[in-house]
Amino acid sequence: MSSIELDNVGREAKAAIGAEYRRGLAAALPVMVGFIPFALVLGAQAVQKGLGTIEVPLMTGLNFGGGSEFAAVDLWTSPPHVALIVAITFLVNSRHLLMGAALAPFLSHMPKRKVMPALFFMCDESWAMGLADARPRSALSMPYFLGVGMGLWGCWIVFTAIGAAIGPMIGDVEAYGFDMAFPAVLLVLLRGMWTGVRGSRPWIVSLATAALVYLTIPGAWYVAAGALAGTVSAWLFAEQP
Amino acid sequence: MMDIATVTTILMMASVTYLTRVLGYVALRGRTLGYRATAVMEAAPGCVLISVMGPDFVSDEPASLIALAITLAAATRFSVLPTVLIGVASAGVLRYWLG
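Above: the input entities. Below: the structure tokens describing the complete assembly.
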């Protein structure tokens, strides 16, 4: 092969990667719309609790985990109880352990050094979308995953920063129904994972546990409790093939 | 102006969160799972997503619950964008009507 042909191959491969990245970005757009009200509310709440307008995007950009950030802001004091907030952050995000494990079989074609930095962009939505996209081809399309994840990440930073800057001016976003965007996205993602009533029994256990814990125990424990109860039930429900 | 205690807390939050993101992958890479572990891995994604939504299902506002039911119905037949629009519109309208 001449160097010109090799060059063409390289260019085609790059174009394919770019197309996959843009496909991810485009797929993430509806989810970004769903992120905006949450981001604005989080930014506004954080400033009320005493975080600075620079500190808010610092937190949302470096941590990039909405649930844990809402929990942290909820518990924030000045000065903050570092150990408490870090422990709650870990617990709320402990679901990532299961998520990373579920993604692992679809990453076996990639070297660890490439996967490790990319996993920074794994949030509930980028993971679910990446996984749904990976299942038919048995391998994760990394540029697609990064397109989704980076799009959501950028949106989260920008709108939490805007929320922090215009905090006192925002009214009640719930009144307009924008908060329903988030469950709407999650429900569509769930439908994509539906394999029948049998397969969804652990989901019911998770939902019931999460709802019960939410009603009885203050804080963000319900996510960890629901995820744990559901996965334990999946273990118990499992039948030998 | 940035506060040292705040920045420290943020950096520690970011570190433990990143740890949760890579730990599952690192620990389970290249392992063959038994049928029970496979069942757990198959169910885990849905369990996590539905747990995040737990509070929405036990809202004390009737308007939000009806809107959630409409959104759920929409999610069974439409793609993401129409479902989001139906969800947001139904929640907005129902809250306006039902207070």
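Note for the figure: Chain B touches chain A through 75 residues (CB under 8 Å).
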